[in-house]
Write a structure and sequence with these properties.
about 220 residues, alpha+beta, five-stranded antiparallel sheet, two-stranded parallel ribbon, 5 helices, 11 strands, metal-binding, iron
């Protein structure tokens, strides 16, 4: 009984470094492909859909249904050519996101975070980066948005094991962006009113390159 529980706990779990952060840069192609090939791609919900504008429910059941959702999220992310995807972006009200994202040094990161919480960084580590940001739920729109260029997230993996994830540059932006989603915030909610209107205008004037769920 105890041995079976231990085996299950370690199945598919990422290793950690000396500081306890997941090592999510190994075997990225194999792991992403395995997730994606088990999954089914779903259309993306877009701004205006109620599920995107409220805090999602905590994940409490780390079961086969959750892991099927994770597989579908990786498949959907690949179809949409994204680097991160939150569950509510495919209409599911649960705090889980997946990512397949490079950092500014070109290292690829692939992983899953349930019930994420951003770690508050000290002032001396909050160097802002005002690069452009986009979102699969605001298709074809981009706008500059200042975010810290280093991010740390705590949470759980899809098996319920506690994890810590950290990233810099573009990957740090991804971690912050996806965590925001699960608490009901889109990146355009952090823009000025003028910039938000401009982003929505970009969205209206262009066609998404992937299937989306039309709002009623």
């Amino acid at each position: 009984m105890a041995q079976q529980e231990t085996d299950q706990q370690h199945a598919g779990v990422l290793p950690v470094d000396d500081e306890g952060y997941v090592i999510d840069t190994r075997d990225c192609e194999e792991r992403e492909t395995a997730y994606r090939e088990r999954g089914t791609s779903r259309p993306i919900t877009v701004v205006g859909n109620p599920v995107l504008h409220k805090e999602c429910r905590d994940v409490t059941e780390f079961d086969d249904e959750l892991r099927k959702l994770v597989d579908d999220m990786f498949a959907s992310q690949r179809t949409a050519e994204g680097v991160g995807l939150a569950a509510n972006q495919i209409g599911v009200d649960l705090k889980v996101f997946v990512y397949d994202c490079p950092d500014d040094e070109g290292a690829r990161h692939v992983g899953v975070v349930c019930n994420p919480k951003l770690v508050e960084l000290p002032a001396d580590r909050r160097i802002l980066d005002d690069s452009n940001e986009g979102c699969l739920s605001v298709p074809t729109a981009y706008a500059p948005l200042a975010r810290p260029d280093h991010a740390e997230v705590t949470g759980q993996d899809e098996y319920g094991n506690p994890i810590k994830v950290r990233g810099t540059g573009y990957f740090a932006r991804c971690l912050q962006h996806e965590t925001d989603h699960l608490y009901g915030y889109l990146y355009i909610d952090r823009l000025s009113k003028r910039e938000r209107r401009n982003a929505l205008k970009q969205m209206e004037e262009n066609e998404p390159r992937y299937p989306v769920v039309p709002n009623d």
